[in-house]
Write a structure and sequence with these properties.
By secondary structure, this protein is mainly alpha-helical. It has ten helices and no strands. The protein is elongated.
Length: about 240
């Protein structure tokens, strides 16, 4: 016969006290985490927007520019997609100092990660443009529409719609890549978490909290992209989920 283990009230009290202590540590350091979160969001949204806009012009140039320009832009995309993000951060942080330029860690991270993001996003945009075909642009040109107007009024809106799923994935990667910026001195949320762990020596609770924050940010952003994908879906091109 199996007898039930008697409940140890002292053990329950210790567990409850440990949970309360962890919550108090997090609460007392919440201002530092919020300050780090502000830097994370500012950096992530800045280099996502920078890379997104740059990628549009790179993709259009790869597809429609003369061959030598297209080759240069393809090489740019390939180089930044081939190098690890941490190497780019070190190059953009330490490199300018060698030629006498003083650049802050934040701007070094924005340029390094933004250009890397542009390389990936341009690859997605190029595929979206090529899926449209040339017939629509040729028809626009035959009606007297200039090439720039045809690109920005016919090709660009469709390209953005077709690339929404890939852009959502790139957004999630972008937010997570901000955690690498601590390597060059950007005090984002992960770096703030390291400071808290050094003071309080409670790594599990701190890093789990930071993980939850990252999950909320990426989840919210990808849900927005999913809404946009459904809102601007092109009839006849929807896929079964």
């Amino acid at each position: 016969m199996v007898t039930a283990r008697p409940y140890n009230t002292d053990e329950g009290v210790r567990v409850l006290q440990a949970l309360i202590d962890q919550m108090l540590i997090l609460w007392s350091n919440s201002s530092a985490l919020l300050k780090g979160l502000e830097v994370t969001l500012e950096l992530g949204f800045s280099f996502f927007a920078f890379g997104f806009l740059l990628a549009i012009f790179i993709a259009l140039g790869i597809v429609f520019a003369p061959k030598y320009v297209s080759s240069l832009l393809s090489g740019f995309s390939w180089v930044f997609r081939s190098l690890p993000a941490i190497i780019l951060l070190f190059i953009f942080y330490y490199g300018p100092a060698r030629i006498g330029l003083d650049i802050s860690p934040f701007w070094a991270a924005l340029l390094a990660l933004g250009l890397r993001h542009a390389g990936y996003q341009a690859h997605y945009f190029r595929g979206a443009i090529q899926s449209i075909g040339t017939g629509q642009l040729e028809a626009a040109r035959s009606l007297g529409m200039s090439l720039p107007r045809g690109l920005f009024e016919i090709i660009l809106p469709q390209m953005l719609r077709f690339s929404l799923p890939a852009s959502a994935n790139e957004y999630a990667i972008t937010i997570k890549d901000t955690s690498l910026a601590f390597a060059i001195g950007v005090v984002e949320i992960l770096q703030q978490g390291k400071y808290i762990v050094a003071r309080e020596y409670n790594p599990l609770a701190v890093y789990i909290t930071i993980a939850v924050i990252y999950w909320i940010i990426t989840r919210a952003g990808t849900r927005i992209f999913a809404y946009l994908e459904e809102r601007y879906m092109v009839p006849g091109f929807d896929l079964e989920r």
